[in-house]
Write a structure and sequence with these properties.
The chain has 225 residues and is of the alpha/beta class. The strands form 2 sheets. Strands 2-3-1-4-8 form a 5-stranded parallel sheet, sandwiched between helices. It has a 3-stranded antiparallel sheet with strand order 6-5-7. It contains 8 helices and 8 strands.
Length: 225
């Protein structure tokens, strides 16, 4: 399989919380010169713009509910019609359910496109829990530290402003285990969907960010890019 004959490259990047997907997506965006399209970014932008859709999303989020598949899919469809998506894209956080995956299949087919590869970035659950439970955030300035990878000089205080460092309520081991359970329940059917189509590649997320980037780029180079 190779990228599109026009040089386009259309990728989907999967990864559970804590695997480093955001870090890798930012690097791939630059290396591949394609837009990084993250559902979280689209939702935040809509709310900040205070559009009718944004106000609808704000109400849903304010109630603590998940944004419905149909609404997320509509935003993805609008984003993929933008001119910068014509030569390719890197989708992050979408599709997250089988319904979204089927919608995306139909969307790219209608637009005369195809997905080139779906990459599943994986880490053992124990490593994910270790990464996320070590995260600390300054309650005053919002600076982020990690007890293992980027430890503060004083374990209880921010290096920048001396504010108190705190652990997010969803970064506890119990909360993370539940987030991983929900993620896997949602995405397992999606991964099987793309595996059946022969589009799925699983990449080991262990190692330094540069090592993981190289593994991802090996997948891209195998597509002829």
């Amino acid at each position: 399989m190779s990228g599109g004959t026009d040089g386009s490259l259309r990728l989907v990047l999967f990864g559970a919380p804590g695997v480093g997907k955001g870090t890798q997506a930012a690097v791939l965006k630059e290396k591949l010169a394609v837009p990084h399209i993250a559902t979280g970014d689209l939702l935040r932008a809509a709310m900040q713009a205070d559009t009718p859709t944004g106000r609808q999303i704000r109400k849903i989020v304010g109630r603590g509910e998940l944004v419905p598949d149909a609404l997320v899919s509509r935003m993805i469809e609008e984003r993929l019609t933008a001119s910068d998506s014509g030569r390719g894209f890197l989708l992050d956080g979408y599709p997250r359910t089988l319904e979204q995956a089927v919608f995306l299949d139909r969307l790219v087919e209608r637009r005369g496109m195809r997905l080139d590869r779906v990459i599943n970035l994986e880490l053992p659950a124990a490593e994910i829990i270790g990464r996320l439970t070590g995260r600390r955030i300054c309650g005053a300035c919002g600076a982020i530290f990690h007890l293992r990878f980027d430890p503060p000089q004083d374990g209880a205080r921010c290096d920048r402003c001396r504010g108190e460092l705190r652990q997010r309520s969803d970064d506890t081991e119990t909360a993370i285990a539940e987030r991983l359970r929900v993620y896997r329940a949602q995405t397992e059917p999606v991964i099987e969907h793309y595996e059946t189509q022969g589009l799925l590649t699983t990449v080991d997320g262990n190692g330094s960010p540069a090592e993981v980037t190289e593994r991802l780029m090996q997948v891209v180079r195998a597509l002829g890019r």
